[in-house]
Specification:
Elements lengths: L5 E8 L11 H4 L1 H20 L5 E7 L5 H10 L2 E4 L5 H13 L4 E5 L8 H12 L4 E5 L5 E6 L17 H12 L3 E3 L13 H5 L13
Parallel strand pairs: 1-2, 1-4, 2-3, 5-7
Antiparallel strand pairs: 4-6, 5-6
Length: about 220
């Protein structure tokens, strides 16, 4: 077992125009939407870098040429992994299960939530360390921006309509049916739609948009 018992998993995608933040493209265009995604990813990784006594792993989807992963390693010195699985649920389960074999407490976040801060991430680990089986950070759109579990159950991540408005509630139902105790964090908002873009300014989350790596 690792000396550091806390592991934060950051889920993201390579910022390829036309393949990320597609609901923003009618308003921003493909390149600008990809730039927003890249900026939110770097904001989240900078936040992770500021955390103490937490090991951060970055799990990347759709990065077959590893350009984005190499950029992250050089900039943040984080270990990067490829996401594996047929859908988001299976990819999250695989990542949590692998990290759960090395660390006592694992928490997974995405990069879409500019309101997420170090205090909330710290509170997530405290929930697990205090004896809760799981912790959930519900999003205002019905999904969730954070999940953590002490014992990883694949059942929690199967049979869900990912991207739908009932993901958080269905996850709660799975917790109840499996006898999993959990604690919830504050409801926060993700940036997925054009009307969400104001969150970037109000949260002062993204002072500038970094250049998207060459594909």
């Amino acid at each position: 077992m690792a000396d550091n018992q806390r592991c934060l998993l950051v889920f993201t995608k390579s910022p390829r125009p036309g393949q990320v933040k597609t609901r923003l493209t009618p308003t921003l265009g493909m390149q600008a939407a990809a730039d927003v995604h890249a900026a939110m990813t770097h904001r989240t990784l900078s936040l992770a870098k500021s955390l103490h006594d937490i090991t951060t792993q970055v799990w990347i989807a759709d990065d077959s040429d590893h350009v984005f992963a190499d950029n992250i390693r050089q900039r943040y010195a984080f270990t990067c992994f490829d996401q594996n699985g047929t859908d988001l649920g299976e990819r999250m389960y695989q990542a949590l299960a692998m990290s759960g074999r090395q660390f006592s407490y694992t928490v997974l976040i995405g990069c879409d939530c500019p309101q997420l801060n170090s205090e909330i991430i710290h509170d997530a680990f405290v929930c697990l360390e205090s004896g809760q089986d799981a912790v959930l950070g519900p999003a205002s759109d019905g999904g969730y921006y954070l999940i953590g579990m002490r014992e990883i159950s694949g059942t929690v991540f199967t049979g869900l309509q990912w991207g739908g408005s009932s993901v958080a509630e269905m996850t709660r139902e799975k917790f109840r049916s499996l006898g999993i105790s959990w604690q919830e964090l504050p409801v926060l908002s993700d940036v997925d739609r054009p009307e969400d873009l104001s969150l970037l300014q109000s949260a002062q989350a993204i002072p500038s948009v970094p250049e998207t790596p060459n594909q």
